Amino acid sequence: MISFLFIVNRAFSSSTSRSSVSSKIMSHGPRPLVLCGPSGSGKSTLLKRLFAEFPTTFGFSISHTTRKPREGEEHGVHYYFVERPEMELAIANDEFIETAEFSGNMYGTSKAAVREIQNQGRVCILDIEQKGVEQIRKTDLNPILIFNNPPTIEELERRLRLRGSETEETLRKRLDAAQVEISYGLTPGNFHKIINNVDIDVAYTEFRDFVVQELKQQEAEGVRVSLN
Ligand SMILES: Nc1ncnc2c1ncn2[C@@H]1O[C@H](COP(=O)(O)OP(=O)(O)OP(=O)(O)O)[C@@H](O)[C@H]1O
């Protein structure tokens, strides 16, 4: 198994085709930030810290779902609640970055929902899986792509067991998927940055510094980014 691969992949680093990139940024606001990595690798932990440190810089897009609203849930706040035919048509029209089905309901992130966050001047954070990354790369959303790499599958298993969120079955599924996800994540050219998430404090500093540097670069190109 892959372990402790300290690869920093800057294949699409900030200097890459800046002029074509900046015209896109100018019209749409800050570039979305994709954080991808196996379940249990620590994505939510990194994002929680980032939001705590920069409360107004980032935002999550609002997902669509075909499930019925629960009490207190509002359309356009918690989800965009839609009917299945409407959602299927939008997917067929290539309006979604990723979709999934759970317990008979569809869920998905639309390109428009990402643009909505960009239009507010915020960096849209997307915690998405490999398929979503492949999809978003085909769009003109021009995301910053970061892969959160766990030290080993054994450590991933330890973290997931400690989190206490899994049954033996879901744990196995997540660990099986992790092998494939890590291979994809470490393939040169797939991500702008790989965070080797061993020690959480070190990982967060590396993640944070990379993101801040990217945002400062965009600011220098005329994009309004509120870094506070
Ligand atoms: N570097 C780390 N070292 C040790 N434990 C960690 C580290 N990062 C996260 N954890 C712990 O591992 C568990 C999984 O982390 P987290 O929930 O952030 O993962 P995730 O990638 O968001 O998972 P999922 O995709 O399933 O939501 C949590 O209990 C978290 O506290």
UniProtKB/TrEMBL annotation:
Domain Guanylate kinase-like, chain residue ranges per copy: 30-212
GO cellular component: cytosol
Family to which this protein belongs: Belongs to the guanylate kinase family.
GO molecular function terms listed in the Swiss-Prot or TrEMBL record: ATP binding; GMP kinase activity
InterPro entries: GK/Ca_channel_bsu, Guanylate_kin-like_dom, Guanylate_kinase, Guanylate_kinase_CS, P-loop_NTPase
Parts forming coiled coils: none
Protein name per Swiss-Prot or TrEMBL: guanylate kinase
A Pfam family matched in the record: Guanylate_kin
Biological source species: Drosophila willistoni
Gene3D superfamilies: P-loop containing nucleotide triphosphate hydrolases
Listed EC numbers: 2.7.4.8
Keyword tags: ATP-binding, Kinase, Nucleotide-binding, Transferase
